[in-house]
Amino acid sequence: MSGEAEGKNGASEETATPHHTNTVDHSNAVTRKRPRAACLRQNFSRQLYQMMIRQLHHDGYLGAAAAVADATGVVVPRLEKDSQRLSKLVSMGLAHEASNVTEMENFMTYEVVERYLGASKLYVPLHLTESSTVGQMAYRMRERFTTSSLGGVVRRVNISPDGSLAACGGNNGLCVVFSLKTMEDLMALEEVRQENQFRGLDGSGGSGNVGVRNASNKITELAEARRFHEHTQSVEAMHFHPSRPLLLTGGREGDLYLRDYSQPNNKVLHKLHDTFPIRSAVFHPSGEYILYATDHTAPRLLNLRTWKLMTPNTVSGNENNAAATNIITGRSGMSNRGGFYRRGTDDSHTAALCDVDFSLDGRLLASCSLDGSLIVYDGVSSRPVAKVNNAHSSVPVTSVKFSRTGNFILSAGMDSVARLWDLRRSDGGCGTAEVMSFGEPGKCNHRSIHAAFSCNESHVLLQDTSLFAIHSYCVYSSDKSYSLVVPNHMQRGFAVAPFCNVVVSGGDDCRVRLWTPTWAAA
């Protein structure tokens, strides 16, 4: 009876168990048919796996080749055909990557201002001191595109480290990020369309200019990547993160925003409020610190990991009035830690700051002030290593920029002159030597005058006294090479692309202009 009961129980269990056409073996391993991988729908993935299987089969790894074929479901006809294609493509790609790395190292090593300053010490024929000419053609810059009105005077312009994005800020608190690649592509298509319309190739008999008038608005709308307006007053500082999709903006109301522009919502990661108006802000090359200048006499250094603000030790207790607010955690009122050291009052600024900058290796930082002084600090100990009093004939110094090697500093002042300082030729009094100046001296009543290096540091770009033009001076001979002129509107801010001769400027007409190279009759 017990045997019959066990048999019935076993029969009932067998009937309760669902029956599959693809059963399991004795080791309980599933042997049901594997569906074809979804990646086979993509031609690239299919070719990649086929090359991998052929390469493994050619190298003698038959088991690995069969495993890849079984896992991906790829069918490889004619295994012996192009069996070494993957190794050849990988070797070519590695060689191309190595060449790109070598070219970048050469660019960072040789395309520097020292190269042109060294060449200027040699004998220079008179015909080489003029603008560069090739045959009967001369190198010029043209206004490639002008955006539609942004609603406010453009005060600050900055270009991303890879040269693909350009950001601008206006006095109405608006910040806009443009895609330069999209702008150039759309402008090229518009130029072809206008040329075809002019020649009558598009079938239109008339010469209507409706499309020409609307082209700027359409291209501006399509090239605009991000737009945000958290600032309540003029945007005075703007800088891209060196490695992450982060944008730093600072306004005259004292707010400093750090936002992530990789997402359409423009998420604000951090917010800092200072009681002084913010004038300039830059990232440390490592991306872990922010250095910004205000109307106070001391620069501020902000740690992005701990969100601690560091100010000079010479600041008294009643002057510690910078407060930080993290909108994510809700923390506020963080204390200022003394991270800068001053040997005395002579080593500090006595008036409001105008601009700050980091060297490319992060070992040095510089600041300039309305008192006409220029100070260079050590990035580790924060001790002043060089100071220049009356750097621009007792007028305010409004701009300071490091060269790519960190050996030279380019400054601009309200005397409409840009000066190049060699940090390697410092004297015993903690000063430095001026090696060259650019521009014609003149009185400038605008704090917006700035100077910048070109992409290969062969030229220095500087605004003139009226701010109506941006002149480019050759470092080789200090002669004027070309000018970017907007007759009726001041150009308050401009930025130079890091790897090509492209300039983006903005001014009082509330528009952003894109300048690209061209060759014109000499």
Describe this structure in a few short sentences.
This protein is α+β, with helices and mostly antiparallel strands and 522 residues long. It is built from seven helices and 31 strands.
Keywords:
Cleavage stimulation factor 50 kDa subunit; single chain; nucleus; alpha+beta; ribonucleoprotein; Methylamine Dehydrogenase, Chain H; ribosomal protein; RNA binding; 5-stranded antiparallel β-sheet; 522 residues
Structure overview:
By secondary structure, the protein is an alpha+beta fold. Strands 1-2-31-30-29 form a 5-stranded antiparallel beta sheet, with helices on one face. A 5-stranded antiparallel beta sheet has the order 7-8-9-10-15, with no helix packed on it. Helix 2 packs antiparallel against helix 3 and helix 6 packs antiparallel against helix 7 (210-223). It is globular and about 80 Å long. Helix content is 21%, strand content 34%. It has 7 helices and 31 strands. The chain has 2 domains: 36-110; 126-521, YVTN repeat-like/Quinoprotein amine dehydrogenase (Methylamine Dehydrogenase, Chain H, 7 Propeller), CATH 2.130.10.10. Strand 8 and strand 9 (255-260) form a beta hairpin.
Helix and strand arrangement:
Blueprint: H1 2-16, H2 43-58, H3 62-72, H4 85-110, H5 113-120, E1 133-134, E2 137-146, E3 154-159, E4 165-170, E5 175-179, H6 180-199, H7 210-223, E6 224-228, E7 235-240, E8 246-251, E9 255-260, E10 267-274, E11 278-283, E12 289-294, E13 300-303, E14 309-312, E15 322-325, E16 336-340, E17 353-358, E18 364-369, E19 374-378, E20 384-388, E21 397-402, E22 408-413, E23 418-422, E24 433-438, E25 451-453, E26 459-463, E27 469-474, E28 480-485, E29 491-496, E30 503-507, E31 512-521
Parallel strand pairs: 14-16
Antiparallel strand pairs: 1-2, 2-31, 3-4, 4-5, 5-6, 7-8, 8-9, 9-10, 10-15, 11-12, 12-13, 13-14, 17-18, 18-19, 19-20, 21-22, 22-23, 23-24, 25-26, 26-27, 27-28, 29-30, 30-31
